[in-house]
Please model this.
Amino acid sequence: MISLIVATVDRVTELERLFASLDRQSYKDFEVFVVDQNSDERVLAVLGRYERLTVRRLTSGRGLSRARNVALPHVRGDVVAFPDDDCWYPDNLLATVAAWFGSHPEFDGLITTLRDADNQPVGPPWPATARSFTKQEVSQYVVSPNGFLRRKSVDGSVSSMRTSGSVPIPGISRARSSTILPGIWPSA
Model:
């Protein structure tokens, strides 16, 4: 199972797009924790349209790390990811991630390429091929929506983890040093 933790504030249209992409996933063994940081209940309408998905709404005050810490004790998946509320996934991404982790037990994490609506890579300059990364290189490539981590490498608290820019990346400081993040998974 894959557990997705989505912190959201002030977004409905973007959250709808994310949930539409989750609804289209070919891989169905996942759960979604929506940590609602709004002062109203604006996300309930979005969540109500996706009752066939396993979704749990939690609430927290504002703050990305705070939201993730609220959800982490509840995850059941062997793999954990932190999609942003304004991202979306290709229809087979979770199937690809699950298959990759199933065939690579020696790795604790996977970095995927971030792409825009035109399927063009965005973000850091991506390596041309999949490869392993050292801990020193991880901060060059990982941002929260493109990292998938084995649950055992996430110690339950985001606040003490290393960061990439201003976004906490859970699990990096706890993952096995020789197998931190295996590299970029090129999109087809």
